[in-house]
Amino acid sequence: MAESKSKAESIREWVIEHKLRTVGCLWLSGLAGSIAYNWSQPNMKTSVKIIHARLHAQALTLAALAGAAVVEWYDHKTGAKADRYAKFLPVDTYSHKE
Predict the structure, then answer these.
(1) Which of 26, 6, 8 is CA-nearest to residue 68?
(2) How far apart are CA 44 and CA 93, in angstroms?
(3) Structure confidence by residue, pLDDT tens digits, 14-48
(4) pTM (2 decimals)?
(5) DSSP secondary structure string, 8-57?
(6) Which residues contact 38 (CB under 8 A, 6 or more apart)?
(7) d(CA 64, CA 20)
């Protein structure tokens, strides 16, 4: 009987398969959270609040993109990505002919 995956393992696999969607969700949640935080600051103008929210979301997005790049590099280094796509590409079809 196959072992069932833990919740963390299934989330990790989903993030690996959907890197850009994950980065987009982090950007959106970072922007929303930063706007919510900045809106509680009474001493700032609205334009400054929006600019700060955008800068915070941009920093979070850059960190998420760096994390996605590390995951991609690790997949290439360990060969996990090649194993994942091997089932879609038949090896014999693309062999060299002499």
Answers:
(1) 26
(2) 63
(3) 888 888 898 888 889 988 999 898 888 888 899 99
(4) 0.63
(5) HHHHHHHHHHTHHHHHHHHHHHHHHHHHHHHHT-TTS-HHHHHHHHHHHH
(6) 44, 49, 50, 52, 53
(7) 9
Nearest to 49 by CA among 58, 38, 37: 38
> Distance between CA 52 and CA 60 in Å, rounded?
12
Angle at 39 between CA 35 and CA 44, to 5 degrees: 110
Any idea how long the chain is? 98
Tell me if residue 95 falls in helix, strand or coil: coil
Q: Rounded to an integer, what distance in angstroms lies between the CA atom of residue 81 and that of residue 87?
A: 11
| Eight-state DSSP code of residue 92 | G
Tokens 């935080």 correspond to 37
First to last CA, the chain: 46
Cα 70 to the center of its chain, rounded Å? 10
